[in-house]
Structures are given as C-alpha cells and as structure tokens.
Amino acid sequence: MSQATRCRTMPGMTEHILPTAALRRWVEQLWLAAGCSADEARLTAEHLVGANLAGHDSHGVGMAPRYVQSWQAGELQLNQHVKVLSDNGSMLSLDAQRGMGQSMAYEAMNLAIERARQHGVCVMGLRHAHHIGRIGHWAEQAVAAGLISVHFTNALSKPVVAPFRGIEARYVTNPFTVGIPVPGREPVVLDYATSAIAMGKVRVAFNSGKKVPGDMLMDLQGNYTDDPAALFPADGGPGGALVPFAQHKGYALAMVCEMLGAALTGGDTTRPAHLTAKYGIWNNMLALVFDPARLSDQQLFGSEVNAFVDWVQSAKLRDGDEPILVPGDPERASRRARAERLPMDAGTLVEMDAAAATVSKVSGVAVPPLSSLLI
Ligand code: NAD
Fold first, then answer.
1. pLDDT digit string, tens, across residues 232-279
2. Which residue's C-alpha comes closest to atom 17 of ligand 1?
3. How many domains does the chain have?
4. Is 192 near ligand 1, meaning CB less than 6 Å away?
5. Is position 222 within any domain?
6. For the chain, which terminal residue's Cβ has fewer other Cβ atoms within 10 angstroms, N or C?
7. Strand 282-290, strand 148-156: pairing
8. Is residue 185 part of a domain?
9. Nearest residue CA, atom 35 of ligand 1?
10. Are 29 and 360 in contact (CB under 8 A)?
11. Does pTM top 0.90 for this prediction?
12. Does any domain span residue 80?
C-alpha cells in the first residue's frame, strides 16, 4: 500500500479469524492467478502463512497486497530462477533477478545446502531478490538439513530507521539471523530486525488501531511517540523513523548487515541512487552455511548446549508467569497455538480483499475475497 492509500482504522477494530489451511490455499490461488508457476505459488503461500504461524504477522500473508502492487508496477518479476554469477565450490554468488523472494531464497538456500554438504561450508551471496520475508524460514531450511546458518540481510525500500544519534531515516530494518540444529533438543533460531521494532509490526499496529511501545518510534522532530501513524502520514509525505534496538548496538549490527548483505554481495545499499522502486521491497543476503559435525562431536555439542540452557533457565524469575526461553521457543509455541486458526486485523483483511480484486481483474482468473473464508 502506498502511504496515502493505506487503510486507516480506528482503535479497537475487530480481529478476524481465518482457518489456517484454507488461508494457505487462498494465497496459493492468488499467486497462481497472477501467473506464478505451481511451485512458486506454493512456496510463497507456505512461507507467508509460515510467518503467521510463527507469530510474525508482520511478515505473513499481510505482505501479499504490497507484493501485488510491486508486480503490477513491473517491479516484482514472477517465475525467475537464481542465476549463478560465480561459483568457486564453497562460495556462490547468486542473482535473484528481481524474482519472488520466497522462491528465490528457497532455490539459493538449496544450492548453499548442497555445497555445505559437499565442502563443509558454503558462503552464499544472494542479490536482487524481492522481499524474502521472515529470514528465520531460510535458517530453518538449513537447520532441517542438519546445518548451521548465519544470515546478514539488508532490506531496500523507503528508509524507515534512523541511525543512532540521528533523527532522519536512512536505512531499513536489516535483520540478523542464526539457525543452529542442536542434537537432543529443538533448534535454536535467532531472527530479528535490527530496529527496536520490525516495520511490519508497526504496519500491523497501524492497521489494528493499536499503539506501539513508546520508545521505538520518533516523529519528524525526533520526539518518541507510541503512535504508528507517525510512519504513515495521511498526506503520503515524509514520516518519522524507527530507532535501532539497543541504541548503538542495533545500529552497528544494521551497518554490518548492509555492508555484508548488500555491498559485498553486489546488491544495492540503501541510498537515494538505489531508491527507484515505488512498491518493491528488495532483499540482499549473505548466508554462511556450514556443517557442525565437521567442527566437533555432535553428542558433546548437544550435551554442552543442554547443560548451559539448564543453567541459564535455573535463574530466579523476575515475573513468575514469564519463563526464561531459548530463541526459537516463541515461534514453536505460536505454531502450536495457531495450527488451525489464524487471527487477522480488519485493516489487513480490507487490503487482502483489494489485492484479490486486483489480481482477478488483471488476470481474468477469479480469486474470491479473503473475507469469504472468515470463520
Ligand atoms: P522479534 O523482536 O519478535 O524477535 C524474534 C526473535 O527473538 C526470535 O529469534 C525469537 O525466538 C526470539 N525471542 C523472542 N522472545 C524471546 C525470549 N523471551 N527469549 C529468547 N528469545 C526470544 O523479531 P522482529 O524484530 O519483530 O522480527 C520479526 C521478523 O521480521 C523476523 O523473522 C525477521 O526475519 C523479519 N524481518 C525481515 C526483514 C526483511 O527485510 N525481509 C526485515 C526485518 C525483519
């Protein structure tokens, strides 16, 4: 949605409920109608619904309307395949050719996994992908193959994050991600934006008529505000900015994501010369994928991690209702809770119905409004 046309909602707006499996089929149907191959439509639907299942609505199906706009503007290209730019065995440079991020990152990770199995390690650079969504999904692809992966990702769209000590937005929410399979326990998946709050979570709060915590956003004058509208000015003019997480620490990590994820991979860093897309959100990513079994005995690794986690979780709780967790635990809990039904705010539902109407009109293939699936 453009800033000006984004649905403006009132506080306390209704939250709707959708059946998870039917929502996944609907997203697949939407992209099939748009012209995606069966694989691309399926991968896109699985990834977007997977983000909702993991509890990250910011990167879930609510991104589809923006993807539709990007496709309509000729920015997102359907049915691309990653192009190998250079291949030195354990080092791969790939170009996603502006393709659907969900299928491009899947292909890129498959190549990196294959090489890491062969050589023990693969350093993979992926440039020019359309939005690759929840990066933890790609770490989980490596984890499922028994591999560790570390991801430095830059996002390229309208800048929304101010550098530490600045008040004007200069870059996007550059996520940092690590996936670790651990023998004898569930994998560890660290995966977050380097801003104090992910931009998509501000979008969801805005669409739901909710506030955000008061120290994560600044207005145009650099004052903290809890109103997500600060980032969606009604006149479509410049908005405020998100702040980095943990002050200089999040800012410094975001800088590294920009340099390794984009400048090094041959992708575009966030600066005016590269801000030419109207709706497209681009991602560039450096992934380090490696086989832990070639570094150490996996049983010893697993027992050491388990002993460490036991020790950490033995700490006295600050709040008896809130246990000490391990990265990856909240997403697992959310998957259990959301397996059958997913919530969606009213503003996002309006955008989804509009996206279905656009795709139906352009393609001539009828896609029912998502609201027809409400429970
Ligand atoms: P977040 O703040 O919800 O943090 C999530 C991470 O913290 C997870 O690893 C989770 O397991 C861990 N975690 C949460 N609570 C925990 C606890 N109590 N103890 C231990 N670990 C805990 O994440 P976010 O910053 O809102 O990011 C959400 C998603 O947005 C991520 O999946 C990220 O990849 C994605 N993202 C994508 C882009 C992009 O351009 N594609 C940009 C920014 C963010």
1. 988 888 899 999 999 999 999 999 999 999 999 999 999 999 999 999
2. 325
3. 1
4. yes
5. yes
6. C
7. antiparallel
8. yes
9. 134
10. no
11. yes
12. yes
